[in-house]
Amino acid sequence: MEKRRSFIKDLLQSTEVDRDVNVKGWVRTKRGNKQVAFVAVNDGSTINNIQVVIDIANFDENIVKNITTGASVNVNGLLVKSVAQGQNVEIQAKEIEIYGTADPEKYPLQKKRHSLEYLREIAHLRFRTNTFGAVFRIRHAMAFAIHKYFNDKNFYYLHSPIITGSDAEGAGEMFRVSTLDIENPPKGEDGTINFTEDFFGKETNLTVSGQLEAELGATALSNVYTFGPTFRAENSNTPRHLAEFWMIEPEMAFYDIHDNMDLAEDMLKYLIKYALDNCMDDLKFLENRLLEEEKNKPQNEKSEMKLIEKLEFILKGNFERLTYTEAIKVLENSKPAKKGKFQFPVEWGIDLQSEHERYLVEKHYKKPVILVDYPKNIKAFYMKQNDDGKTVRAMDILFPGIGEIIGGSQREEDYDKLSTRIKEMNIPEKDMWWYLETRKFGTVPHSGYGLGFERLMLFVTGMSNIRDVIPFPRTPKNAEF
RNA sequence: UCCUCAGUAGCUCAGUUGGUUAGAGCACCUGACUGUUAAUCAGGGAGUCGUAGGUUCAAGUCCUACCUGAGGAGCCA
Q: Which ipTM was obtained for this model?
């Protein structure tokens, strides 16, 4: 009797009407009068709801009463052309089963729009909103597109370890992993904690980067990428940082820094195009949401482009590529520098501040910028040294509104140069023996980069807080859910 | 971690130089309406004013500390 369940996404596109269908989902709204009720049902397959029309006379009073915002329902009915404006098809209900009621007095979501801050406090339910439905459908699409992109390019997906015994990445503070009794840890004669009694027989932490391990893979498989969770115990309280985030780290043998930049730019464009080709309904919703949000803002705070326009714009042109040294010159000759408007003065050798990056991307070039050849003193030990003795082949890709979305480099493949640099920077060499051996045996020029998945998500969705593009954000003082 | 701002009904917010019984919109409930589209109209219930101290005849309002959130900065992806 009961038809197989259809997804609402498919029914809304169907031209085959006057047939029995079954949908299962959650009630978004109910409208109507004594005779007829209109129930908007959503099953997550699309941002759009299907309208279920209930002839009240044909249904038990309790059923109709319990169809409230948030309730889960099983609907059998006839898919028909809608006689009213607003939707092409709707379902004339024949049977309705309520799986679970949602007490309207207590259900925290209303038909009306909520603030993102409030929804963050009910992250277990925020999936049921249009905004987060859209965001997480896009998040899936982006994750899928990343695998597809690399797979189509002969990259292998490499699982780098989550637990790491090396703290040499230098990418930030780490979370310790230990099974020792925290109240009463075993101690050596000198009073320090004896980690040889710990689970792994040594100090271990959650990974801050899979890069070093990816490099090992690349020295045999040629092209690999990692895509996994990454953990940083930094006390960062910004809309761009998480303590737990997802990072994509491709690593390519026989790639120099230019090949590296080409790949990174191509990949970003591919991902943005994928979103435009596959997530239009959700993007349109998010675009309207942004317009609504900016309605009351003063003109100078409004975005210059609408969301979809902004994404299409990225596809059109090439990213601006220049060296760090050239960027410093541009900044030195800029209006804000001459008027003393920068809070941090510009000079060769400094690490660029947010205000400098934003000037380059948002004011000067007005498009994504790739900076290369940074001073070696402000970059990591593994980056390939240039012949000038001052710079390394590092590259950062800066996006409008986001800042650094990708950081990467050509890696130093020369054993002597690398081990000298490790000594100079006081990195514990004994922990790095395996990394150094790849330079001892059949070393090759190679490159790679790290893409912050949530930063990509910020850009693609137009959301402004990184906590709203990951299902369960982990930030300082917050690990609820 | 630093700087700034905020915390009042389920949600979003107003609340004057400190002064009667703390308000509005939405949501919710009840009623009306023969097809609604954030439905509409009428009525109703709803509050430990973030927490703890302090000043005062009197504190939502002033002071101190703390908690939580947001924005900016640093760290970075």
A: 0.90
